[in-house]
Each structure stands twice: as C-alpha cells, then as structure tokens.
Specification:
heterodimer; A: 336 residues; mainly alpha; 14 helices; globular; B: 289 residues; two-stranded antiparallel ribbon; 2 strands
Chain lengths: 336, 289
C-alpha cells in the first residue's frame, strides 16, 4: 500500500521573503470583512474557527503525514470541554480556551498512543473509529452532555472582564480572528523549528529517521497532541461564540469536510489550510443558499477538478502565479 | 434469553452480514487489485437501488426484470468511472484517491437528491420473496432466507471465479505483481476494468436486496460509507473470505447488541472495529505489507 501522503519536492520549509505575510493578509482581510460583511459576522466567526481546525489538520497531515478522517474527535473534545467548563466552573473565555486545548490534547494523547503505530488506510480507519466512538459516547451520556439536544444554557463572561459577547457578534468575531492569528504564528514557529524539520523527515522516510536514531513514534505522538490542542482550541472557540456544543461537532461529516478543505487548499504549507477553508465555506454558503443540494454538486466537481488538474491544491495555482511573476522579474534583471 | 430471540438474532445477523458482504466485496477487490480507495462505492449500491425502484414505473418491467436490468446498468455505468476518472489515480497517494472519490460521491448524492428527492424510496421485492415461510415450528421471513442464500451463492461463485477460472488466474497475477503480469501478456487494464464492473454490479445487487435493512435514500452513499469501509478494513483488503468473515463479525455484533442493548449498538460496532485493527492492522485475513 502506498503512503498516504505524496512526497513533497523539498524537505525544508520554503523561507518566504516576508515571514508574517500570511498573518498580515488574514488581519487585513478580517478587518475588511468586519466593515464590508458585517451582516454575516456569525458566518465569518465560524470560518475563523474552522481555519484554526484546518491549520491543526494541515499541521499533522502536511508536516508529519498523519492522515486523519476523525479530526472531529479532537475538535468536539475541545468544544464539549469548554462547554462543560463554562457550565460548571467558570465562564471566563480564555480559561475556557485553555480547557478546550487540554481536552483536545488529552483525547489526542489517548487515541494517538494506540493508533499512531498504524499507517495508510488502517490509520485512517482507526481515526474514523475514534471519532465515531466519541460521538456515540457523547450521544449516550446525555445526562452530562445533553445528547442530541446539545449542551447549552451556559454563559460566557466578558472577554478580559471588559468586552461583552454582544448579540451582533462583533466581540466574538474579533476574538476568533485574534486566536486564529496567535495559532497561525505559533504553528509557523513550530514548522520552521527543528521539531518541524524532523516531522517532515518522518513523513518522507520514517524508517530512515528511525535508523538515524530518531524516535518516530514519540515524535508523531507529540505532533498529534499539538494538533489535538489546536483542534481543541478551535472547538472551544466555536462553542464559546455560538453558545452551544452540539453533536454535529463530532460528526463524521465534519471530519470529512475538514480533510476536504485542507487537501483542496494544499497540504504543503499552512496557507493552504486557510485558502481551502475560505473557499469551501464560501462555496457552501453561496451554493447552499441557492439550493440545499447544489452545493454538494459544486464541491464534488471542484474536488475532482482540483485533484485531476492541481495535485498540489489551490496553493499550486498561487505558487505558479508567483513563480511566473518572480521568474519574469529575475529574467528582466539578468537582461538588464 | 429465549430460544426464539436467539433464532431471530442469528437470522437477522446473517442476513445483514450477507448484504454487507455483497456490497463490500467489490470495494475490497478495488482496494486489493486496483489499489484504489474508492469512497464512492456506496454510490453504486445506491444507483442499483434507485434504478430497481424506478424501472417498473419507467419501463413497466416486472420486479425480477427490473432488478436484473438495474444490476447490469450499474455495471455499465461503472465502466466510464473506472476508465476516465479512477485510472488517472492508480499511482497516486491514498489521500488523493479518497478525495477524488468523495467528490464523485458528492455528485452522485446531489444528483440522486435532485431526481428522487430526499425521502426514503421503497425498493419493491418480487412477490415470491414477500411474506414468511414455515420451517418446522418457526415462521421465517422469506426475504431473509433469500438474502442468506444469495450471499452464500455470491461467495461460492466468486471463490470459483478467482480460484478456478482463467480470469481468476489473471486477477491473482495482477494482484501479486502487476508489472510482471503485464510483461507476460496479461491485459491488466482490462482485468481491472472487468473486476471493477463486477464489484459495482455486486454492490448494486446488495443495495437492492438489502434495501429493507439499509433503506434507500439520496444520502445512502455517504450515510453507510463508514460501515462499508469498516467491513473492508476489518476483513483485509482484497480478500474474499476476509470480507465474508468481517461482515459476519461486524454485522453479528451490531445486530446482537441492537436487540439486547440498542443504545450502545454503534459503540459495540466501532469498538470491535477499533480492537481488530489494533491487533491486526492489516485486517483479519489481510497480508502484511
């Protein structure tokens, strides 16, 4: 059986001329959206939370090659963790995020310890089974979790003791974007560190890393736990901004959607996750407004088209355009 | 627990397992032979079910004829899918294969929704298979018995085809070493295409006769995707008896727990799958890679 992830052309993360270009773009676009699309703030907040989740999957898949179709398990764990924390302990949003991160990391540690020795399709199936088991457990223990009614009736106290989560959702939106920016910078530091380099080495040739004395299993587990913490943050954020933790957060459909977003955008770099998430969510929003089933058709056609024509995802389009511009400029420089 | 309950559980388990086996054996063959993870396999079962349900009113054919025509039509529909779509992905990574077949499944689900609506469509069974028959002291549903016999027949025919026929020799050669098989003159592309169509046809057959247990609706292909994948993974990709045993195991566990403790039947199902894959990552009958 082939490895789940196609080999990338180069091991080191490409150094960009502007290190924080991605974060700057996110901040500018997010602020522009705040003024231009202020009727859709709840959708935009959702997109920001999904971007964090996609960054998490992009990290474990693109860096370490852990193909997961059960990422909803980590997302939902964070969400229910934050919801239960807000209901029983405290409504402080930042502590809630921390609890969500811990819940996601804990589920990642417990499940990852078992499943990270598997590869390929078996690994995919084990991640699916983990998410389904968690879904069924949450559904079954309805006294604690609210079952399929979801977990509600908790209140989130003002952010930093000052900014109320208002009805329009402006606080929630800015909060989500801020968390997204922090996560994005943190993951970038990690990707560019020796830790990230080892991850990519494992993805490309795990047995060689093993031969050189690398501890592949432990490293993969560390990557998975970090991914779990980030997914947990995304889940907590989603629950805090929507005031409900629902079973759909643990659904297989969500796991599949995130995987689609990440691969659609391109798994080589974190930017692909953002690109894929925004594309997917925008298509979902526009096409499902026209007719509830058309969007499946549109996404299906897009997926096939991208997989056939752009194996590197939408990022490849961008990279080609950049290469063309820079190439032309370089040639002009030589000629001059 | 009464004897009658045990009997009911056993009969339902086996009937359910045979349906799972018929639908998933094609998926298992696709994975073992073509090395393609086809997440759209359920769409073939769905096409079969919807065609069998609609042909009587579209063409005025009888139920038996409709079923045969539906199965044949799905086999023909599968041919261009393999040739024009999947063939491009033979050498690619699993992730790309999964994503492109998910895309195809989405399109099928969207089309089914547009044509047939989102409700459950009942697939008519021939009158000979309705009602029940008395065997000894017990009344047994004819449908369940028919499904059981059909599943065993499919197992027998496939076993014979793989182990004894010349086509089976070509298939096994292509599974073991596609390059050498090609070098000694086996047209592997043709073998792949035929095997894929047979798999799709069996899925359609399973979808039609199994519609009583897995109801036919537009979201069928995505709803039971995990179920079908689980059977293949637990059995081991590309193994005939693996899929059969895995279907019996998973179908048995789910049906039994559904009778006794309905709220945890899904938990039991996924726990079984999880444990089997932890102990045997290559599946029950799979070869270690």
């Amino acid at each position: 059986m082939k490895e789940a992830v196609p080999a990338a052309s180069s091991v080191p993360a490409p150094r960009r001329p502007f290190p924080l270009l991605q974060e700057a773009c996110i901040a500018v676009v997010a602020l522009a959206c705040l003024f231009l699309l202020d009727d859709n703030l709840s959708l935009l907040t959702n997109i920001a939370a999904m971007c964090i989740l996609a960054l998490s999957l992009n990290f474990i898949l693109g860096q370490a090659g852990i193909a997961s179709m059960g990422h909803a398990a980590l997302f939902g764990a964070g969400g229910y963790g934050a919801g239960l924390f807000a209901l029983h302990v405290s409504g402080s949003p930042l502590s809630g995020l921390l609890v969500g991160a811990c819940a996601g990391a804990a589920v990642a540690l417990a499940s990852g310890a078992l499943l990270l020795r598997a590869r390929g399709l078996t690994l995919v199936m084990l991640t699916i089974a983990t998410a389904q088991l968690l879904f069924e457990l949450v559904n079954w223990q309805r006294d604690i979790t609210g079952g399929d009614d979801g977990l509600t009736s908790f209140t989130i106290s003002p952010l930093l003791g000052r900014f109320e989560f208002d009805f329009i959702g402006r606080t929630g939106y800015l909060y989500a974007v801020a968390v997204l920016l922090v996560v994005s910078v943190a993951l970038r530091l990690l990707v560019n560190s020796p830790f990230g380099l080892t991850s990519r080495a494992i993805r490309l040739d795990a047995s060689r890393v093993e031969t050189m004395g690398g501890r592949v299993y432990l490293h993969l587990l560390a990557v998975y736990v970090i991914g779990g913490a980030v997914a947990g943050v995304a889940g907590a954020l989603m629950v805090q901004t929507t005031s409900v933790a629902s079973l759909s957060m643990l659904d297989f459909n969500l796991s599949a959607s995130v995987l689609i977003m990440v691969v659609l955008g391109g798994i080589q770099r974190p930017a692909g996750a953002i690109l894929g998430t925004i594309t997917y969510m925008a298509i979902h929003h526009v096409a499902s407004g026209l007719s509830p089933h058309h969007w499946l058709f549109v996404i299906g056609v897009l997926l096939i088209a991208v997989m056939v024509a752009l194996p590197g995802g939408l990022l490849e389009l961008w990279d080609r355009a950049v290469a063309r511009t820079w190439g032309r400029r370089a040639r002009a420089h030589h000629a001059g | 627990m009464s004897l009658e309950l045990v009997g009911n559980i056993a009969l339902d388990s086996v009937a359910y397992a045979m349906i799972l086996f018929m639908i998933t054996i094609g998926l298992s063959m696709t994975m073992g032979l073509l090395r393609i993870v086809n997440l759209a396999h359920g769409a073939f079962a769905m096409m079969g079910g919807f065609l069998a349900a609609s042909l009587p009113s579209w063409l005025g054919t009888s139920t038996w004829v409709s079923i045969v025509v539906a199965v044949a039509a799905v086999a023909l529909l599968a041919l261009p899918v393999e040739r024009w779509l999947l063939r491009r992905f033979y050498g690619r990574g699993e992730l790309d294969q999964m994503l492109v077949t998910i895309g195809f499944m989405f399109i099928c689900v969207a089309l089914a929704n547009t044509v047939f609506g989102s409700g459950i469509v009942s697939v008519p069974l021939p009158s000979a298979l309705q009602g029940s028959v008395e065997i000894g002291p017990r009344l047994l549903q004819k449908h369940r018995i028919f499904v059981m016999l059909l599943g065993l027949a499919v197992l027998g025919i496939l076993w014979f085809a793989v182990e004894r026929s010349s086509f089976g020799i070509k298939v096994r050669a292509a599974v073991d070493n596609a390059a050498i098989a090609q070098a000694i003159g086996i047209d592997t592309a043709r073998v792949y295409a035929i095997a894929f169509c047979i798999g799709a046809a069996l899925a359609a057959l399973g979808g039609i006769v199994g519609a009583e247990l897995l109801p036919m609706e537009a979201s069928y292909a995505s709803k039971y995707l995990v179920l079908f994948l689980a059977v293949v993974a637990v059995g081991g990709q590309g193994t005939l008896f693996g899929s059969f045993v895995a279907a019996l195991l998973l179908g048995g566990v789910e049906t039994t727990v559904k009778y006794l403790l309905p709220q945890v039947s899904s938990i039991a199902f996924f726990l079984t799958m999880f444990l089997v894959l932890l102990v045997r990552p290559q599946g029950l009958f799979g070869r270690r890679v």
